[in-house]
Amino acid sequence: MEIKELSFKEAMRQALQEEMKADPLVVVMGQDVRKNGGSLGITLGLEEQFGEDQLMDTPSSEQAVIGTAAGAAMTGLRPVVELASMDQALLAFGELVHGAARPFYWSRGKEKVPMTVIVPIGGGDWPQNGQALENLFAHISGLKVVEPSNAAQGKGLLKAAIRDDNPVVFLVNRDLLNIKSQVPVEDSYILPLGKSYTERKGGSVTIVAWGAALVSVLEAAVVLDQDGVRAEVINPMTLSPLDMDPIFQSVKKTGHLLIVHDENKTGGMGAEISASVAESQVFDYLEAPIFRLCGLDVPMPYSKGLEDVMTPKAEDVIQSVYDLLGVD
Fold it and tell me: What percent of the chain has a predicted confidence (pLDDT) above 90?
């Protein structure tokens, strides 16, 4: 398999290009997606290849855009909607729930809504737009929620989302957009939705993390390894439906579980994972209480310095592992 170093942004653009070329029913909608590449720059250069039939500029009217995309999906297209921020997604939340997530249920499986909604999250865009709220979408039956951590995952999961017959919310952390990694360039490269991935094997402690938080966790795992602490790192990649089995198997092996995410702690995905482990037979294998290291329960700050304080960093992960293992 041919490998090329690409940024997260370039990998997403490649995924869109391949899927739009393979299927003319794949259309991209969003503000300034034709000339300016949209809010994330992932559609730059696609207008020359696909034109206005497959690349559509929309007004700043998110409720109408999501409703239009859901209707188009039910009539045969495969829309990919790029929103500019999480707060814009909230403006369209009713359409996402009732127009996109529910038709499969009220039609007894007859209506499919194959649409993908790309939502930027994370810091760097001030309090109005920087929140993640991944748990809010994962709570809605009928919505799949994906959050990749690097360029390869961004490409493989976006292609899977576009091909899925149900609505997928695709969360992209802005902090990752320009980070490069090795990406398979074949058209056939795709990562299945709903499958957790073991990023690193170990036997001392299980760490579950995704999105930008995974970057800090992998940095911490290298340092911990030098101290003889072997961290096994599990990345769910798809937050809904959540593949818990690799987490269960890892906790059976290590007896210790740390969950790390950037979103606020209260009511976050870490609570859901923690409860799932506590309700399972794996609970008997735990040698210490489950730890959660999460974003602070505050809105995303305006200041970059405060933003760094709000979200977990590698040194916080290291200290949490030592606390969990009872190491001074």
Answer: 84
Alpha-carbon distances of 132 from 7, 18, 111, 141, rounded to whole Å = 21, 28, 29, 19
Beta bridge partners of 49: none
Helix (H), strand (E) counts: the chain: 14, 14
Q: Which of 156, 160, 154, 118 is nearest to 31 (CA)?
A: 118
> Taking the mean position of all CA atoms in its chain, how far away is CA 239?
7
Q: φ, ψ for residue 27 (rounded to 5)? A: -125, 145
Q: Which is nearest to 246 in space by CA: 206, 215, 286, 218?
A: 206
What are the tens digits of pLDDT across the range 288-311? 999 999 999 888 777 778 888 888
Strand (E) or helix (H) holding 26: strand 26-30
Task: Report residue 299: phi and psi, to 5°.
Answer: -65, 160
Separation in Å, CA 279 to CA 235, 244, 253, 273: 21, 12, 18, 10
Distance between CA atoms of residues 62 and 129, nearest Å: 14
Residues forming a β-bridge with 277: none
Q: What is the pTM of this model?
A: 0.95
Q: Cα angle vertex 17, ends 12, 19, to 5°?
A: 95
Contacts of 149 (CB under 8 A, 6+ apart): 176, 210, 211, 212, 214, 215, 235, 237
The SS3 assignment for 170 reads strand
* CA dist., res. 273 & res. 212, Å (int): 18
Nearest Cα to 28, choosing from 68, 75, 81? 81
Residue 180: strand pairing partners: 7
